[in-house]
Every structure is written in structure tokens, then in C-alpha cells.
Amino acid sequence: SPEKTPFRHMRKLGNYVCGAWMEGEVDGQVLTDASTGQPLAMATTAGIDMGAAVRHARSKGNPALRRMTFHERGRMLRALALYLSERKERYYDVSMHTGATRADGWIDIEGGFGNLFSYASLRRRLPDEPFCTDGDAHPLGRNRTFAAQHLLIPREGVAIHINAFNFPVWGLLEKFA
Hints:
Layout: E1 15-17, E2 20-22, E3 29-32, E4 39-43, H1 50-67, H2 70-85, H3 88-96, H4 102-121, E5 132-140, E6 146-152, H5 168-176
Antiparallel strand pairs: 1-2, 3-4, 5-6
């Protein structure tokens, strides 16, 4: 018979990959309460096709973000900040399991939400376009029949974010923004 573990019925956290949830089906690392040592859940990356995740990011996510204007991105960040703010007590509950006090959690959680709001407000200083001009046009040629203009455009590719442990909410939300 298979060896039984005390964690057999523990909640297994899923992963959102390639536009869909992958339910945690494989045993992973046991996540415990930092204060009590009580097991809380299991997490794993087993079964994730990282190559497929990168291809999805390059073919779906990145092109979709690059098509968005600065105003659309800002409104999306603001909507996320409002959504999370309305549910902030859930994050305080989770934060307590890390050994953080309410004050520690406040800096991380509400600081992270504030960061989203701050980045979202930058849309007011940017054009409602998916690009931004940088400086004045530069006339080229003697007769000024053509010119050059620097543009700031979103990067192509995939961003890999590695989060710090000291501010898990703030750090992740700042990278999202």
C-alpha cells in the first residue's frame, strides 16, 4: 500500500499558467505557519511546462499588453488595486501566518495597493496611445524634408519576476505595475 503522509488531505495550491488554472495534483512543499509550525497547504511547480508558459507569454500576453494604451493599462491597474483593497482582510489573515504583525502586514499589503494606485495614476501624464514620444522631432537633411522622432514603446519578450521575501505583496504588485 502507498505510504500515508499526514498531509494527504491538505489543500494543494493551484497555479495559473497559460490562461488556465492547473490544480495542484502532486504533493509539493508543505507551507507552514511561521509562528505555530502548523501545516497550511502544499505548493509545487511540478507538471508546469515552462516552455509552454514562455511561448504563451510571448504569443498571447505580451502582444495583448503592447496593444493597450497607457490609459487602458492604468485603468486596469486601478481596477486591480480596488479589487484587492476590497478584500484586504483576507491578505492580513494570510500575512499573520508568515509571522508578521498587523503593522508589518499594513506596510506590505496596503503599501502594495498604494503602489498600484500610484502607477495607475501615471496614465494622466501619458498619452492615450500604446507609445509615447520622447522629446522633440529632429529635422534630418538640409531641406528639412524628413525628421526623426524617438518613441518609447513597450518591450517585446517575457519578464521573469523574482519576488523578495521581505515584502511579498508589495514587491509582487510593484512588479505587476
